[in-house]
Amino acid sequence: MVKTSKDMTILERRYVPCGDIILHEGERGNNAYLVQSGEVEVYSMAGEREIILGKMGPGQIFGEMALVFDKPRTASVRATEHCNLIVITRNVFNDKLRRSDTTIRAIVNMLTKRIIETNNALLNKNDGLDDLQETVLNVYNNVVETLPKTERREFRNAVLPELNNFLDAVARFSRELQLEKDADNSEDDFTL
Prior knowledge:
Layout: E1 2-3, E2 9-10, E3 13-16, E4 21-23, E5 31-37, E6 40-46, E7 49-56, E8 61-62, H1 65-68, E9 76-79, E10 83-89, H2 90-98, H3 102-124, H4 129-146, H5 149-189
Antiparallel strand pairs: 1-2, 3-10, 4-9, 5-8, 5-10, 6-7, 6-9
Helix pairs in contact: 3-4, 4-5
């Protein structure tokens, strides 16, 4: 990192060839990366199963949790195309955050904690239908809270009816599944 003035910092650039792993789940880090060009894939392991969490392209940042928390990374990231990345270190981030308004600092900390909770909920659930419903509602609420107030109503109007239809379908399926299990169990009670 080279400082050119009090407010201007030249950040390190990194080239990553397609297929290379940039971050490893479970390792500690102190860098985030801004995708300048190319594409990366974020994934996590659940036992032997690889779960693709998303893809990111130019203008998107990954590894940002390491800027705020000194905890193991919750996912791995690999380049799916040749990438040029801008490296953002914890020191640079903290320097910029220290110079920002206290309200901004509080919001950044709150949002980061909520994202970690949501990621953990998505990765650590037991794949039950109740867990799915709870996770979907948590993600929805977290998204709503991050939107500017002027966009919340439009988002709710567009998403909430479809989300409620989905959750109703999951609840109906869950009830039918439970009725089938209850019927199977009651048949077993009469068997000698």
